[in-house]
Design goal:
Elements (H helix, E strand, L loop, with lengths): L1 H28 L13 H81 L1 H14 L11 H60 L4 H7 L14 H107 L11 H63 L8
Helix pairs in contact: 1-2, 2-4, 2-6, 3-4, 3-7, 4-6, 6-7
Length: 423
Protein backbone atom coordinates (compact mmCIF):
# COMPACT_ATOMS: atom_id res chain seq x y z
CA UNK A 1 0.00 0.00 0.00
CA UNK A 2 2.89 2.39 0.83
CA UNK A 3 4.55 1.73 -2.54
CA UNK A 4 1.26 2.45 -4.36
CA UNK A 5 0.88 5.78 -2.54
CA UNK A 6 4.44 6.76 -3.35
CA UNK A 7 3.97 5.88 -7.02
CA UNK A 8 0.71 7.88 -7.32
CA UNK A 9 2.23 10.90 -5.57
CA UNK A 10 5.33 10.83 -7.81
CA UNK A 11 3.13 10.69 -10.91
CA UNK A 12 1.10 13.65 -9.64
CA UNK A 13 4.15 15.90 -8.95
CA UNK A 14 5.76 14.90 -12.25
CA UNK A 15 2.62 15.91 -14.21
CA UNK A 16 2.48 19.27 -12.46
CA UNK A 17 6.13 20.01 -13.18
CA UNK A 18 5.80 19.07 -16.87
CA UNK A 19 2.68 21.27 -17.24
CA UNK A 20 4.38 24.38 -15.74
CA UNK A 21 7.52 23.85 -17.83
CA UNK A 22 5.45 23.50 -20.99
CA UNK A 23 3.63 26.78 -20.33
CA UNK A 24 6.89 28.69 -19.76
CA UNK A 25 8.61 27.36 -22.86
CA UNK A 26 5.60 27.98 -24.98
CA UNK A 27 5.67 31.62 -23.86
CA UNK A 28 9.38 31.96 -24.54
CA UNK A 29 9.41 30.06 -27.82
CA UNK A 30 6.48 31.73 -29.49
CA UNK A 31 6.65 35.57 -28.95
CA UNK A 32 4.25 37.93 -30.53
CA UNK A 33 5.45 38.62 -34.16
CA UNK A 34 4.25 42.19 -33.96
CA UNK A 35 7.06 42.94 -31.47
CA UNK A 36 9.64 42.08 -34.06
CA UNK A 37 8.52 44.98 -36.22
CA UNK A 38 9.35 47.59 -33.60
CA UNK A 39 12.62 48.71 -32.11
CA UNK A 40 13.58 47.51 -28.55
CA UNK A 41 12.47 44.68 -26.35
CA UNK A 42 8.92 43.42 -26.07
CA UNK A 43 8.23 44.37 -22.43
CA UNK A 44 4.85 42.73 -22.43
CA UNK A 45 6.22 39.29 -23.28
CA UNK A 46 9.04 39.69 -20.79
CA UNK A 47 6.57 40.55 -18.06
CA UNK A 48 4.51 37.49 -18.89
CA UNK A 49 7.59 35.29 -18.86
CA UNK A 50 8.69 36.68 -15.50
CA UNK A 51 5.26 36.10 -14.05
CA UNK A 52 5.22 32.54 -15.27
CA UNK A 53 8.73 31.95 -13.94
CA UNK A 54 7.75 33.29 -10.56
CA UNK A 55 4.66 31.09 -10.57
CA UNK A 56 6.80 28.09 -11.54
CA UNK A 57 9.22 28.78 -8.67
CA UNK A 58 6.37 29.03 -6.23
CA UNK A 59 4.91 25.76 -7.44
CA UNK A 60 8.32 24.06 -7.20
CA UNK A 61 8.77 25.29 -3.65
CA UNK A 62 5.30 23.98 -2.81
CA UNK A 63 6.18 20.72 -4.49
CA UNK A 64 9.39 20.47 -2.49
CA UNK A 65 7.51 21.11 0.74
CA UNK A 66 4.83 18.60 -0.16
CA UNK A 67 7.32 15.92 -1.16
CA UNK A 68 9.34 16.55 2.00
CA UNK A 69 6.24 16.15 4.16
CA UNK A 70 5.21 13.08 2.20
CA UNK A 71 8.51 11.20 2.51
CA UNK A 72 8.83 12.15 6.15
CA UNK A 73 5.29 10.93 6.80
CA UNK A 74 5.87 7.74 4.85
CA UNK A 75 9.18 7.09 6.64
CA UNK A 76 7.42 7.64 9.95
CA UNK A 77 4.73 5.15 8.90
CA UNK A 78 7.45 2.74 7.82
CA UNK A 79 9.18 3.16 11.17
CA UNK A 80 5.95 2.45 13.07
CA UNK A 81 5.13 -0.59 10.97
CA UNK A 82 8.66 -1.96 11.31
CA UNK A 83 8.66 -1.32 15.08
CA UNK A 84 5.34 -3.12 15.38
CA UNK A 85 6.65 -5.94 13.26
CA UNK A 86 9.76 -6.26 15.44
CA UNK A 87 7.59 -6.32 18.58
CA UNK A 88 5.40 -9.03 17.04
CA UNK A 89 8.48 -11.07 16.17
CA UNK A 90 9.92 -10.55 19.66
CA UNK A 91 6.67 -11.76 21.21
CA UNK A 92 6.67 -14.89 19.07
CA UNK A 93 10.37 -15.45 19.78
CA UNK A 94 9.67 -15.35 23.52
CA UNK A 95 6.79 -17.80 23.09
CA UNK A 96 8.95 -20.09 20.97
CA UNK A 97 11.87 -19.88 23.40
CA UNK A 98 9.61 -20.64 26.35
CA UNK A 99 8.03 -23.61 24.60
CA UNK A 100 11.44 -24.80 23.35
CA UNK A 101 12.82 -24.71 26.89
CA UNK A 102 9.79 -26.65 28.17
CA UNK A 103 10.19 -29.28 25.43
CA UNK A 104 13.94 -29.61 26.11
CA UNK A 105 13.37 -30.01 29.85
CA UNK A 106 10.57 -32.51 29.27
CA UNK A 107 12.68 -34.49 26.79
CA UNK A 108 15.59 -34.57 29.25
CA UNK A 109 13.24 -35.74 32.02
CA UNK A 110 11.81 -38.43 29.75
CA UNK A 111 15.29 -39.60 28.74
CA UNK A 112 16.33 -39.74 32.42
CA UNK A 113 13.26 -41.81 33.20
CA UNK A 114 13.99 -44.02 30.21
CA UNK A 115 17.43 -44.71 31.69
CA UNK A 116 15.69 -45.82 34.88
CA UNK A 117 13.42 -48.12 32.86
CA UNK A 118 16.45 -49.59 31.10
CA UNK A 119 18.10 -50.17 34.49
CA UNK A 120 14.91 -51.77 35.78
CA UNK A 121 14.86 -54.00 32.68
CA UNK A 122 18.46 -54.99 33.32
CA UNK A 123 17.50 -55.59 36.94
CA UNK A 124 15.09 -58.37 35.91
CA UNK A 125 17.78 -60.46 34.23
CA UNK A 126 19.64 -61.57 37.36
CA UNK A 127 16.52 -62.56 39.37
CA UNK A 128 15.19 -64.42 36.33
CA UNK A 129 18.51 -66.22 35.87
CA UNK A 130 18.52 -67.21 39.56
CA UNK A 131 14.93 -68.43 39.36
CA UNK A 132 15.72 -70.61 36.34
CA UNK A 133 18.82 -71.99 38.09
CA UNK A 134 16.76 -72.84 41.18
CA UNK A 135 14.24 -74.71 39.03
CA UNK A 136 17.07 -76.59 37.32
CA UNK A 137 18.76 -77.45 40.63
CA UNK A 138 15.51 -78.74 42.11
CA UNK A 139 15.13 -81.03 39.09
CA UNK A 140 18.26 -82.80 40.35
CA UNK A 141 16.42 -84.10 43.42
CA UNK A 142 15.60 -87.79 43.77
CA UNK A 143 12.56 -88.83 41.70
CA UNK A 144 10.53 -89.44 44.86
CA UNK A 145 11.26 -85.85 45.93
CA UNK A 146 10.43 -84.25 42.58
CA UNK A 147 6.89 -83.31 43.45
CA UNK A 148 5.06 -80.09 42.61
CA UNK A 149 5.31 -78.59 46.06
CA UNK A 150 4.65 -75.02 47.15
CA UNK A 151 8.21 -73.97 46.37
CA UNK A 152 7.91 -75.31 42.83
CA UNK A 153 4.65 -73.42 42.28
CA UNK A 154 6.06 -70.17 43.65
CA UNK A 155 9.22 -70.49 41.54
CA UNK A 156 7.16 -71.03 38.39
CA UNK A 157 4.97 -68.05 39.32
CA UNK A 158 8.09 -65.97 39.99
CA UNK A 159 9.47 -66.89 36.57
CA UNK A 160 6.20 -65.87 34.94
CA UNK A 161 6.13 -62.54 36.84
CA UNK A 162 9.73 -61.71 35.92
CA UNK A 163 9.19 -62.53 32.24
CA UNK A 164 5.99 -60.47 32.20
CA UNK A 165 7.73 -57.50 33.82
CA UNK A 166 10.65 -57.73 31.38
CA UNK A 167 8.28 -57.82 28.40
CA UNK A 168 6.32 -54.84 29.74
CA UNK A 169 9.48 -52.82 30.35
CA UNK A 170 10.78 -53.60 26.85
CA UNK A 171 7.56 -52.27 25.31
CA UNK A 172 7.77 -49.25 27.61
CA UNK A 173 11.31 -48.46 26.43
CA UNK A 174 10.16 -48.66 22.80
CA UNK A 175 7.20 -46.36 23.43
CA UNK A 176 9.42 -43.89 25.28
CA UNK A 177 11.91 -43.91 22.39
CA UNK A 178 9.07 -43.04 20.00
CA UNK A 179 7.89 -40.23 22.28
CA UNK A 180 11.44 -38.88 22.54
CA UNK A 181 11.61 -38.90 18.75
CA UNK A 182 8.35 -36.91 18.57
CA UNK A 183 9.65 -34.48 21.19
CA UNK A 184 12.84 -33.98 19.19
CA UNK A 185 10.81 -33.43 16.04
CA UNK A 186 8.79 -30.73 17.82
CA UNK A 187 12.05 -29.25 19.15
CA UNK A 188 13.50 -29.21 15.63
CA UNK A 189 10.54 -27.28 14.21
CA UNK A 190 10.64 -24.84 17.13
CA UNK A 191 14.35 -24.27 16.64
CA UNK A 192 13.91 -23.83 12.90
CA UNK A 193 11.04 -21.37 13.40
CA UNK A 194 13.03 -19.57 16.11
CA UNK A 195 16.05 -19.29 13.83
CA UNK A 196 13.97 -17.86 11.00
CA UNK A 197 12.23 -15.45 13.37
CA UNK A 198 15.61 -14.31 14.73
CA UNK A 199 16.89 -13.72 11.20
CA UNK A 200 13.72 -11.78 10.33
CA UNK A 201 14.07 -9.74 13.54
CA UNK A 202 17.69 -8.95 12.70
CA UNK A 203 16.71 -7.84 9.20
CA UNK A 204 13.81 -5.68 10.44
CA UNK A 205 16.01 -4.18 13.17
CA UNK A 206 18.51 -3.28 10.46
CA UNK A 207 15.69 -1.68 8.49
CA UNK A 208 14.62 0.31 11.58
CA UNK A 209 18.09 1.86 12.08
CA UNK A 210 18.71 2.29 8.36
CA UNK A 211 19.04 5.91 7.09
CA UNK A 212 19.54 7.57 3.74
CA UNK A 213 23.24 7.85 4.52
CA UNK A 214 23.71 4.18 5.43
CA UNK A 215 21.76 2.84 2.46
CA UNK A 216 24.45 3.93 -0.03
CA UNK A 217 27.03 1.73 1.69
CA UNK A 218 24.53 -1.11 1.73
CA UNK A 219 23.94 -0.72 -1.98
CA UNK A 220 27.65 -0.79 -2.67
CA UNK A 221 28.13 -3.97 -0.62
CA UNK A 222 25.37 -6.03 -2.18
CA UNK A 223 24.81 -7.38 -5.63
CA UNK A 224 21.31 -8.64 -5.05
CA UNK A 225 18.45 -7.57 -7.23
CA UNK A 226 16.28 -4.80 -5.80
CA UNK A 227 13.16 -6.32 -7.27
CA UNK A 228 10.76 -7.68 -4.64
CA UNK A 229 10.21 -11.45 -4.58
CA UNK A 230 6.74 -12.87 -4.78
CA UNK A 231 5.39 -13.00 -1.21
CA UNK A 232 3.12 -16.02 -0.78
CA UNK A 233 2.75 -15.98 3.03
CA UNK A 234 -0.03 -13.80 4.41
CA UNK A 235 0.28 -12.25 7.90
CA UNK A 236 -2.33 -14.69 9.17
CA UNK A 237 -0.41 -17.63 7.74
CA UNK A 238 2.78 -16.19 9.24
CA UNK A 239 1.21 -16.17 12.70
CA UNK A 240 -0.30 -19.63 12.20
CA UNK A 241 3.12 -21.16 11.47
CA UNK A 242 4.39 -20.42 14.96
CA UNK A 243 1.02 -21.16 16.55
CA UNK A 244 0.99 -24.59 14.88
CA UNK A 245 4.57 -25.35 15.97
CA UNK A 246 3.81 -24.23 19.53
CA UNK A 247 0.58 -26.23 19.61
CA UNK A 248 2.34 -29.36 18.32
CA UNK A 249 5.12 -28.93 20.87
CA UNK A 250 2.57 -28.44 23.65
CA UNK A 251 0.72 -31.57 22.52
CA UNK A 252 3.89 -33.65 22.57
CA UNK A 253 4.92 -32.17 25.93
CA UNK A 254 1.54 -33.11 27.39
CA UNK A 255 1.82 -36.63 25.96
CA UNK A 256 5.34 -36.89 27.35
CA UNK A 257 4.22 -35.77 30.82
CA UNK A 258 1.39 -38.29 30.78
CA UNK A 259 3.80 -41.00 29.67
CA UNK A 260 6.24 -40.13 32.45
CA UNK A 261 3.49 -40.37 35.06
CA UNK A 262 2.36 -43.71 33.63
CA UNK A 263 5.90 -45.08 33.38
CA UNK A 264 6.67 -44.04 36.94
CA UNK A 265 3.56 -45.89 38.06
CA UNK A 266 4.62 -48.92 36.00
CA UNK A 267 8.07 -48.90 37.61
CA UNK A 268 6.61 -48.75 41.10
CA UNK A 269 3.99 -51.43 40.39
CA UNK A 270 6.40 -53.84 38.69
CA UNK A 271 8.94 -53.44 41.50
CA UNK A 272 6.19 -54.09 44.06
CA UNK A 273 4.98 -57.17 42.13
CA UNK A 274 8.50 -58.61 41.84
CA UNK A 275 9.25 -57.88 45.50
CA UNK A 276 5.98 -59.46 46.61
CA UNK A 277 6.54 -62.60 44.52
CA UNK A 278 10.20 -62.84 45.54
CA UNK A 279 9.17 -62.66 49.18
CA UNK A 280 6.45 -65.28 48.65
CA UNK A 281 8.99 -67.65 47.06
CA UNK A 282 11.48 -67.02 49.87
CA UNK A 283 8.78 -67.76 52.45
CA UNK A 284 7.88 -70.97 50.61
CA UNK A 285 11.54 -71.98 50.65
CA UNK A 286 11.83 -71.30 54.37
CA UNK A 287 8.64 -73.22 55.16
CA UNK A 288 9.67 -76.15 52.98
CA UNK A 289 13.14 -76.24 54.53
CA UNK A 290 11.62 -76.39 57.99
CA UNK A 291 9.29 -79.18 56.85
CA UNK A 292 12.21 -81.15 55.41
CA UNK A 293 14.26 -80.63 58.55
CA UNK A 294 11.34 -81.73 60.73
CA UNK A 295 10.70 -84.85 58.64
CA UNK A 296 14.40 -85.68 58.51
CA UNK A 297 14.73 -85.16 62.24
CA UNK A 298 11.75 -87.42 62.95
CA UNK A 299 13.18 -90.16 60.74
CA UNK A 300 16.61 -89.81 62.31
CA UNK A 301 15.00 -90.11 65.74
CA UNK A 302 13.27 -93.32 64.64
CA UNK A 303 16.44 -94.92 63.32
CA UNK A 304 17.86 -95.77 66.77
CA UNK A 305 14.54 -97.36 67.69
CA UNK A 306 14.64 -99.41 64.51
CA UNK A 307 18.24 -100.46 65.18
CA UNK A 308 17.27 -101.34 68.75
CA UNK A 309 14.39 -103.39 67.44
CA UNK A 310 16.71 -105.21 65.05
CA UNK A 311 19.05 -106.05 67.92
CA UNK A 312 16.06 -107.10 70.06
CA UNK A 313 14.89 -109.42 67.32
CA UNK A 314 18.37 -110.90 67.12
CA UNK A 315 18.47 -111.43 70.90
CA UNK A 316 14.96 -112.88 70.76
CA UNK A 317 16.01 -115.28 68.07
CA UNK A 318 19.00 -116.29 70.15
CA UNK A 319 16.74 -116.82 73.16
CA UNK A 320 14.37 -118.85 71.01
CA UNK A 321 17.28 -120.92 69.78
CA UNK A 322 18.41 -121.53 73.36
CA UNK A 323 14.88 -122.52 74.32
CA UNK A 324 14.68 -124.85 71.33
CA UNK A 325 18.00 -126.40 72.31
CA UNK A 326 16.91 -126.89 75.92
CA UNK A 327 13.59 -128.36 74.83
CA UNK A 328 15.38 -130.65 72.39
CA UNK A 329 17.64 -131.81 75.22
CA UNK A 330 14.59 -132.45 77.40
CA UNK A 331 12.92 -134.25 74.50
CA UNK A 332 16.03 -136.32 73.94
CA UNK A 333 16.09 -137.15 77.61
CA UNK A 334 12.41 -138.14 77.61
CA UNK A 335 12.89 -140.29 74.48
CA UNK A 336 15.91 -141.94 76.02
CA UNK A 337 14.00 -142.72 79.18
CA UNK A 338 11.10 -144.05 77.17
CA UNK A 339 13.44 -146.22 75.10
CA UNK A 340 15.15 -147.57 78.17
CA UNK A 341 11.82 -148.38 79.78
CA UNK A 342 10.92 -150.34 76.70
CA UNK A 343 13.78 -152.64 77.62
CA UNK A 344 12.06 -153.73 80.83
CA UNK A 345 11.05 -157.38 81.12
CA UNK A 346 7.80 -158.22 79.43
CA UNK A 347 5.71 -158.34 82.53
CA UNK A 348 7.23 -155.14 83.81
CA UNK A 349 6.22 -153.14 80.76
CA UNK A 350 3.01 -151.75 82.09
CA UNK A 351 1.45 -148.45 81.18
CA UNK A 352 2.07 -146.82 84.46
CA UNK A 353 2.02 -143.18 85.43
CA UNK A 354 5.68 -142.77 84.64
CA UNK A 355 5.09 -144.15 81.16
CA UNK A 356 2.10 -141.85 80.66
CA UNK A 357 4.08 -138.86 81.94
CA UNK A 358 6.95 -139.58 79.57
CA UNK A 359 4.62 -139.85 76.60
CA UNK A 360 2.83 -136.63 77.59
CA UNK A 361 6.19 -134.88 78.09
CA UNK A 362 7.43 -135.99 74.69
CA UNK A 363 4.23 -134.73 73.08
CA UNK A 364 4.42 -131.37 74.86
CA UNK A 365 8.13 -130.92 74.16
CA UNK A 366 7.61 -131.72 70.49
CA UNK A 367 4.82 -129.15 70.35
CA UNK A 368 6.93 -126.57 72.16
CA UNK A 369 9.89 -127.13 69.85
CA UNK A 370 7.65 -126.76 66.80
CA UNK A 371 6.15 -123.54 68.11
CA UNK A 372 9.54 -122.16 69.09
CA UNK A 373 10.83 -122.88 65.61
CA UNK A 374 7.80 -121.15 64.09
CA UNK A 375 8.45 -118.14 66.32
CA UNK A 376 12.07 -118.17 65.26
CA UNK A 377 11.03 -118.10 61.61
CA UNK A 378 8.57 -115.29 62.32
CA UNK A 379 11.27 -113.42 64.23
CA UNK A 380 13.53 -113.66 61.21
CA UNK A 381 10.77 -112.29 59.00
CA UNK A 382 10.14 -109.50 61.50
CA UNK A 383 13.82 -108.68 61.56
CA UNK A 384 14.00 -108.60 57.76
CA UNK A 385 10.97 -106.29 57.71
CA UNK A 386 12.57 -104.01 60.29
CA UNK A 387 15.81 -104.02 58.30
CA UNK A 388 13.93 -103.12 55.12
CA UNK A 389 12.21 -100.34 57.06
CA UNK A 390 15.61 -99.18 58.28
CA UNK A 391 16.98 -99.16 54.73
CA UNK A 392 13.97 -97.26 53.43
CA UNK A 393 14.23 -94.76 56.25
CA UNK A 394 17.95 -94.30 55.69
CA UNK A 395 17.21 -93.78 52.01
CA UNK A 396 14.52 -91.26 52.89
CA UNK A 397 16.94 -89.50 55.21
CA UNK A 398 19.49 -89.34 52.39
CA UNK A 399 16.86 -87.98 49.99
CA UNK A 400 15.73 -85.42 52.56
CA UNK A 401 19.33 -84.43 53.15
CA UNK A 402 19.86 -84.01 49.41
CA UNK A 403 16.68 -81.95 49.03
CA UNK A 404 17.63 -79.91 52.07
CA UNK A 405 21.06 -79.22 50.60
CA UNK A 406 19.56 -78.09 47.30
CA UNK A 407 16.95 -75.84 48.92
CA UNK A 408 18.85 -74.55 51.94
CA UNK A 409 22.36 -74.32 50.54
CA UNK A 410 22.33 -74.04 46.75
CA UNK A 411 19.05 -72.18 46.13
CA UNK A 412 19.34 -70.00 49.23
CA UNK A 413 22.88 -68.97 48.32
CA UNK A 414 21.78 -68.25 44.77
CA UNK A 415 18.87 -66.11 45.93
CA UNK A 416 20.62 -64.34 48.80
CA UNK A 417 22.44 -61.65 46.69
CA UNK A 418 19.30 -60.87 44.64
CA UNK A 419 17.82 -57.44 45.32
CA UNK A 420 14.68 -55.96 43.82
CA UNK A 421 15.30 -52.22 43.37
CA UNK A 422 12.77 -49.46 42.83
CA UNK A 423 13.96 -47.00 40.18
Amino acid sequence: MIFCVQADYSLYTENRLELSTEVIWRTMSFPDHSSLLGVGPDLKNIEVMLNHSELFRAECKGLIQETDKAWRRMQNDDQKRLDQRVRDIQFLIKELQLKLEEVILETDALMTLQSSVVKALEGTKEPLRVTVLCLEERMKRFPAERVEDEVERELLKEQEVLKGVASLLERTVEQMSEQIRLNRSAKYHLEKDLKEKSEAQHIDNSCVVMTTHSISNLQLSTTKSTSLPSLTVTPKQWENISDINIAKAEHQKTNSESMRALVQSVLEQTAADMQKQFQATTTAFQTHIQEIKSAKSQMEEKLPEILSEIFSQERLREDLQVAITENEHSLNLANTRLAMRLQRPGKEQCYDLAQAQLLTEIQHLTSHIKKLREETTQSQEQQRAVVRCKLRMEEDVDMKASSLYIDEVICTQLREPVRIHTF
